[in-house]
């Protein structure tokens, strides 16, 4: 694979399996026992477990694991469209496609290589994709698990076309929580958001922290680079750090919408919360030959964690 074993032992850190549909899944492991499972279907992270083997991502008990639909849970990739605002299918086609493994990926940055297991997945448009979205691109998704069990997703999208194109994007992250009533998000206070439940009306977050007592479907704009999802029930905090992703989408379907989704249990809204690092408000414009990078790092710390520790730098002004 072109890497020295001291830096990265591909065979020791990665296991390749197949799911019920014969689709390749890749398991990354950290030396301390954390793991992440990634499917070539959608380039989707299906599972992320901490050193104690506890699952950190939500998967619906009614999830359908059959292409071409993406599975309800984990981290689907929304590209080249987020939501249903343009002509493509909801959240774009990337989450429904079979990605390829790059067997010879570019090496990790020397400062970034210590103990990480990683896999590079590639998506290029098929002839069918080009009919509905006529833009040639190469999407490289690097999924890494650090020694301490953090999950790092780096997307590199390159315009390999002769003309510019624009897109929107999200890491649609289904976090597993103890009970939604025990959860709060810090880092979104005072921010403007588009409320998808009110025709994308522009509102401003008023509370000290975001808590949940009904359906929420919002795109927070110009967010800080780090936010915290504090789960009092599990006494743990997800720290979400992002680069190149100005927006954060927060979604919980609550009871009524849950009942309308075939691949979601009626009560499962209590155990999940989607918090997506995203670029949705202003489409990303890529000129021929240009590349766009978006980085998301998810880690978990004990609940004594204080949000003062977060790097609250703005990503846009
Ligand atoms: O059912 P889907 O296509 O996976 O989408 C689920 C939800 O995804 C969220 O990110 C959107 O903001 C919601 O509007 C949407 O309902």
UniProtKB/TrEMBL annotation:
<keyword id="KW-0413">Isomerase</keyword>
<dbReference type="InterPro" id="IPR014718">
    <property type="entry name" value="GH-type_carb-bd"/>
</dbReference>
<dbReference type="GO" id="GO:0005975">
    <property type="term" value="P:carbohydrate metabolic process"/>
</dbReference>
<dbReference type="GO" id="GO:0047938">
    <property type="term" value="F:glucose-6-phosphate 1-epimerase activity"/>
</dbReference>
<feature type="binding site">
    <location>
        <position position="95"/>
    </location>
    <ligand>
        <name>substrate</name>
    </ligand>
</feature>
<dbReference type="GO" id="GO:0030246">
    <property type="term" value="F:carbohydrate binding"/>
</dbReference>
<dbReference type="Pfam" id="PF01263">
    <property type="entry name" value="Aldose_epim"/>
</dbReference>
<dbReference type="InterPro" id="IPR008183">
    <property type="entry name" value="Aldose_1/G6P_1-epimerase"/>
</dbReference>
<dbReference type="InterPro" id="IPR011013">
    <property type="entry name" value="Gal_mutarotase_sf_dom"/>
</dbReference>
<dbReference type="GO" id="GO:0005737">
    <property type="term" value="C:cytoplasm"/>
</dbReference>
<feature type="binding site">
    <location>
        <position position="90"/>
    </location>
    <ligand>
        <name>substrate</name>
    </ligand>
</feature>
<dbReference type="InterPro" id="IPR025532">
    <property type="entry name" value="G6P_1-epimerase"/>
</dbReference>
<feature type="binding site">
    <location>
        <position position="72"/>
    </location>
    <ligand>
        <name>substrate</name>
    </ligand>
</feature>
<protein>
    <recommendedName>
        <fullName>glucose-6-phosphate 1-epimerase</fullName>
        <ecNumber>5.1.3.15</ecNumber>
    </recommendedName>
</protein>
<comment type="similarity">
    <text>Belongs to the glucose-6-phosphate 1-epimerase family.</text>
</comment>
């Amino acid at each position: 694979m072109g890497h020295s074993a001291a830096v990265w032992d591909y065979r020791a850190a990665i296991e390749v399996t197949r799911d019920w549909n014969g689709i390749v899944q890749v398991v990354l492991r950290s030396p301390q026992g954390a793991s992440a499972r990634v499917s070539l279907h959608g380039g989707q992270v299906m599972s992320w477990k901490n050193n104690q083997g506890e699952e950190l991502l939500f998967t619906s008990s009614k999830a359908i694991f059959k292409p071409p639909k993406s599975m309800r849970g984990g981290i689907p990739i929304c590209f080249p469209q987020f939501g249903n605002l343009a002509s493509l299918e909801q959240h774009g086609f990337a989450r429904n496609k079979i990605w390829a493994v790059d067997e010879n990926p570019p090496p990790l940055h020397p400062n970034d290589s210590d103990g990480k297991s990683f896999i590079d997945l590639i998506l290029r448009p098929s002839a069918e994709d080009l009919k509905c979205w006529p833009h040639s691109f190469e999407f490289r998704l690097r999924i890494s698990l650090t020694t301490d069990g953090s999950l790092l997703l780096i997307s590199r999208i390159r315009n390999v076309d002769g003309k510019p194109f624009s897109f929107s994007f999200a890491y649609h992250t289904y976090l597993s929580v103890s009970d939604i009533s025990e959860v709060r998000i810090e880092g979104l206070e005072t921010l403007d958001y588009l409320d998808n439940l009110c025709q994308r009306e522009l509102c401003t977050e008023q509370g000290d922290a975001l808590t949940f007592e009904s359906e929420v479907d919002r795109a927070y704009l110009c967010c800080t680079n780090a936010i915290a999802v504090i789960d009092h029930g599990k006494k743990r905090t997800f720290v979400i750090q992002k680069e190149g992703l100005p927006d954060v989408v927060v979604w919980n379907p609550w009871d009524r919408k849950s009942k309308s989704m075939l691949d979601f249990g009626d009560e499962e809204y209590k155990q999940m919360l989607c918090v997506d690092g995203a670029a949705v408000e202003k489409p990303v414009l890529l000129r021929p030959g240009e590349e766009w990078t978006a980085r998301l790092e998810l880690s978990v710390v004990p609940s004594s964690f204080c949000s003062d520790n977060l790097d609250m730098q703005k990503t846009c002004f």
